[in-house]
Design brief:
about 190 residues, alpha+beta, 50s Ribosomal Protein L5, Chain: A, five-stranded antiparallel beta sheet
């Protein structure tokens, strides 16, 4: 793995954990919320050709450094021409060093590459986890935008051990997730 992964993990261990213990009042280091996994999910149209699915597998694999799992339809839906067992997407679950490396590249390289990027929304899911939708996968440096004719969207889910949205938001803010300021915060600043 590259040294990028150790940068974010080292930041978490040396700076973020003590900061959270001080500001949130955690007595035990095991109470401090941590990032447990990152899940990347991309839906692929089941009615498109087989090459589209293979391109999605190759691209998501290049972005994450791990081979994706093909997800299949659980039920048939005739309105969508979908049959049970047809491939409908790809997903990857990252943990450990690969998780830290992906998150570093996602926050510092991919998100700033989005046109007119002003930050991400600060709404979490109610359990301290965060979902980010990416409309075009060519924001990642591993994908060359001119060679592809597909724009693959994906969902990036950051799963934390936080017990509330406030704990999760604070953890992600300290890790470096660029939350956008609310209009009321911008007026006060």
């Amino acid at each position: 793995m590259s040294s990028d992964s150790s940068v974010l993990k080292t930041l978490y261990v040396e700076k973020i954990v003590p900061e959270l213990k001080k500001t949130q009042g955690y007595k035990n280091i095991h109470d401090v919320p941590k990032l447990t996994k990152v899940v990347i999910n991309s839906g692929v149209s089941a009615t498109k050709d087989k090459q589209f699915l293979e391109d999605a597998i190759k691209d998501i694999g290049a972005i994450t450094g791990q081979k994706p799992v093909v997800t299949k339809a659980r039920i048939s839906v005739s309105n969508f021409k979908l049959r049970e067992g047809m491939p409908v997407g790809v997903k990857v679950t990252l943990r450990g060093e690969k998780m830290w490396e992906f998150l570093y590249r996602f926050i510092n390289l991919a998100l700033p590459a989005i046109r007119d990027f002003r930050g991400v929304a600060s709404k979490l899911d109610g359990n301290g986890n965060y979902n980010i939708g990416v409309a075009d996968h060519t924001i990642f440096p591993e994908i060359s935008g001119d060679a592809k004719n597909i724009a693959l969207g994906m969902d990036v889910t950051l799963v934390t051990s936080a017990k509330s949205d406030d704990e999760g938001r604070e953890l992600l803010r300290l890790i470096g997730v660029p939350f956008r300021k609310n209009s009321s915060e911008e007026q006060a600043a």
